[in-house]
Amino acid sequence: MLLFSLDSDANFAQALAASLGLMLAPHEDRRFEDGEHKLRPLVDPRGRDTYVVASLHGGPGDSPHDKLCHLLMFIATLREHGAARVTAVVPYLAYARKDRQTKPFDPVTLRYVAQLFEAVGTSQLMVLEAHNVAAFQNAFRCTTVHLEAHRVFDALVHALAGDPPLAVASPDPGGVKRAQLWRESLAQTLARPVGFAMVDKRRSAGVVSSENLVAGEVDGLTVLLLDDLIASGDTMRRAAVALRQAGAREVLAFAAHGLFTGPAGEVLADGSLAQIVVTDSVPPFRLLEAGAVRSKLRVVSAAPLFSEAIRASHAAGAR
Q1: Where do the structural domains in the chain lie, given as residue ranges?
Q2: Digits of tens for pLDDT over the chain (319 positions)?
Q3: How far apart are CA 158 and CA 235, in angstroms?
Q4: What sign results for the dihedral spanned by CA atoms 230, 232, 233, 234?
Q5: Reduced to 3 states, what is the DSSP secondary structure of residue 126?
Q6: b/e per residue, 183-192, with b = 16+ CB within 10 A?
Q7: What is the rounded distance in angstroms from the CA atom of residue 88 to the CA atom of residue 306?
Q8: DSSP conformation class of 313
Q9: Which CATH fold would you assign to the domain 151-300?
Q10: 2-148+304-318 is classed in which CATH architecture?
Q11: Cβ(276)–Cβ(226) under 8 Å?
Q12: Which of 38, 98, 201, 296 is catalytic?
């Protein structure tokens, strides 16, 4: 097995390599003065089961489409030189949110990204918490492995929330299934009932609106508010305010991906959110100056989850 990392911040990849008992394989990334890149492996991939780590979030150096282009070219190069199988390990998948047409002449960008991965010979794609699992799985013709972030959060719940009665909530209707799956998992793990709630939200032309409508009983409960990602933080803040107004004792926000764009540092400092927990799929570099949020932010590693999936994939490929 070969494991490469194209991430400039190699913390996740190093943790993954350590979990797998591997060293990251060396590669060259030569940047030319006009902005072009040449990427090549520095070990022979011929006949090897090969995994390439690249989280496709924007910044701090490259844009999502820069990173996507680099990943695609590197996969193509590995296939060109005889890699038996190439798996893209993509903790955060860019463009996954645009998975359907909502306006006239809209693109379906997720499907176009899938076609690019397939065109360069990607054998399979591993991602953490896609925005819409059904759309993600239907967009790709190559094998996909979808990892659920709540499996990373399970072990933290007792330490963060303690013994009070719990409920899992979705901040919008689109995340109901994600939250329900975590509620079911937690109820089994904790061997006690866990409630469920949903907060109403509507978005049009990028503008979010809601009437603080909460479906479900949260009065006196500690609420675990789960979403796939946090961008500006406004969805989480609005949901937390609504849940507190509905009687929630405390609201803890959980998300697979902490993008923390724009005013997120200020928005998430709101007192309605007691804790914010994200994985290391995206380094929280945009919150370096946001002291109030940093004090209640916790980053947990998804590397063991990916390690488990890679071990299973490699064992299946060897049979």
Answers
A1: 2-148+304-318, 151-300
A2: 999 999 988 899 999 999 999 999 999 999 999 989 999 999 999 999 999 999 999 988 899 999 999 999 999 999 999 999 999 999 999 999 999 998 999 999 999 999 999 999 999 999 999 999 999 999 999 999 999 999 999 988 888 877 889 999 999 999 999 999 999 999 998 888 999 999 986 655 555 555 678 999 999 999 999 999 999 999 999 999 999 999 999 999 999 999 999 999 999 999 999 999 999 999 999 987 767 788 899 999 999 999 999 999 999 876 6
A3: 25
A4: negative
A5: strand
A6: bebbbeeeee
A7: 12
A8: H
A9: Rossmann fold (3.40.50)
A10: 3-Layer(aba) Sandwich (3.40)
A11: no
A12: 201
Q: Is 67 a catalytic residue?
A: no
Question: What are phi and psi for residue 252, nearest 5 degrees?
Answer: -115, 125
Assess whether the region 2-148+304-318 and the region 151-300 belong to the same CATH fold: yes
Q: Which residues contact 181 (CB under 8 A, 6 or more apart)?
A: 148, 150
